[in-house]
Amino acid sequence: MNKPGTFVQVSYYSIDNYEEHHNFNTIEEARTYAHSWIGKAPSLGRGYAVSDDGVGKITVRGCSLQELFPLGI
């Protein structure tokens, strides 16, 4: 769990240049958002996670990708 007063910023990018950036108060909220966009077990790169179909990418600040995607490969 992140410390009080901190936040997790999750950014979503798609291959058609769509993007969204959201701040969350807890890792659990951030995880739910990220999973809704790219699934629970995406491929993890260095600093990003990619959906299995290659359409969406997530980056995060305030926690690790492994905390958002404990099932990621």
Number of strands: 5
Which structural category do the helix and sheet elements fall into?
Answer: alpha+beta
Largest sheet: number of strands, sense, barrel closure:
5 strands, antiparallel
Order of helices and strands: EEHEEEH
Low-pLDDT segments: none
Report how far apart the termini are: 22 Å
Sequence of strands across the biggest β-sheet: 2-1-5-4-3
Radius of gyration: 11 Å
The helix tally amounts to: 2
| Beta content | 25-35%
**Helical coverage, percent range:** 10-25%
Mean pLDDT: 91
Number of separate structural domains? 1
Shape: globular
Structure report:
By secondary structure, this protein is of the alpha+beta class. It has one domain. Helix content is about 20%, strand content about 30%. The protein contains two helices and five strands. The protein has a five-stranded antiparallel sheet, covered by helices on one side. The chain starts with 7 loop residues before the first strand and ends in a 5-residue tail after the last helix. The mean pLDDT is about 90.
